[in-house]
Amino acid sequence: MIEIKDCSKAFGAVKAVNKVSLEVGEREVFGLVGSNGAGKSTLLRMIAGVMKPDEGEIRIDGISVYDDEKAKSFLFYISDDSYFPSDYTPGDMANFYRYYYPRFDIQRFYKFLHQFGLDEKKRISSFSKGMRKQLNVLLGVSAGTKYLLCDETFDGLDPVMRQGVKSLFAAEIMSREFTPVIASHNLRELEDICDHVGLLYKGGILLSRDLEDMKFHIHKIQCVLSDKSQERQLQKELNILKMEHQGSLLLITARGTRSAILEQIREKNPLFCEIIPLTLEEIFISETEVAGYEIKNLFF
Are 166 and 192 contacting, i.e. CB atoms less than 8 angstroms apart? Predict the structure, then answer.
């Protein structure tokens, strides 16, 4: 488990991270979401032990991570702007990391390179941004660490490669102790992979929730009712977060269990009624509005 307790980090007058407390459970995909400048990269660097918090503490499996080789051996950190020596090939990088990560599986690494279509002998300096991102992920997974810290990992990946990386993460979680922490400014990149999501805003954690739990307690329903009086009744009976019309179709976003919401609507004998999937963005809109924030002001 990664435990972050009241961590802060300032650069001069700028408070990059402000009293953040988080827990990252084992064998889950944790998404750290926030706009550019929200403090995601600084927080990841502190988790990796690259930076020391001004205040607070970060522990990896019970060990304080800063300046501790054992704690750092549990994780692999992929920065947003990773450096590669100009004449290095993927094979050279694998040989480099084998000295620092005893569990680095060189055979798996070359297998991954083949699957992702990367040439082991080609200079990395000739790779595109997306190819370098893929290479970093393959190095991180092959290192065999328990935790993989990814800063904007999906930025620059095309949809096919993005899905390939997500499938790789899912397979690793199923086969061993593996926990990816993925920082991103894009909610849509994370909604089909994350188990838990934390929203970072101006250096602080606005909310941290289990995604399935959020989906369980917030639902979106589209229905057609026979008259306006039934709509007014639902406004009184349901905990409605949002209600809008698209012609005769009524769209309701409500808090509560799926069965309870459907029961109330079906009592009105609707002409049509069905649950439709909520996106991660729609879930966050409802959660941040409850906290007094407007998500469009946080990301756009």
Answer: yes
Residue 300 has pLDDT above 50, yes or no: no
Q: What sign does the dihedral 284-288-289-295 (CA atoms) show?
A: negative
What would the pLDDT profile of 90-107 be if each residue is shown by its tens digit? Answer: 999 999 999 899 999 999
CB 170 within 8 A of CB 131: no
How far is the CA of 86 from the CAs of 92, 93, 122, 124, 126, in angstroms? 11, 11, 11, 7, 9
> What is the pLDDT, as a whole number, of residue 163?
86
What letter would DSSP give residue 257? -
**The token pair that represents 70 in the structure block:** 């054992």
Is the pLDDT at 155 greater than 70, yes or no? yes
Is there a contact between 220 and 35 (Cβ–Cβ < 8 Å)?
A: no
Q: How many CB atoms lie within 10 A of CB 299?
A: 19
* Three-class DSSP category at 179: strand
Instruction: Give this prediction's pTM.
Output: 0.81
Question: What is the token pair recorded at 47?
Answer: 């988790």
User: In the numeric block, which tokens belong to residue 235?
Assistant: 């406004």
Under 8 Å between Cβ of 96 and 124: no
Sequence-separated (6 or more) residues with CB below 8 Å from residue 36 = 185
- Domains present along the chain, CATH in parentheses: 2-202 (3.40.50.300), 215-299 (3.30.70.100)
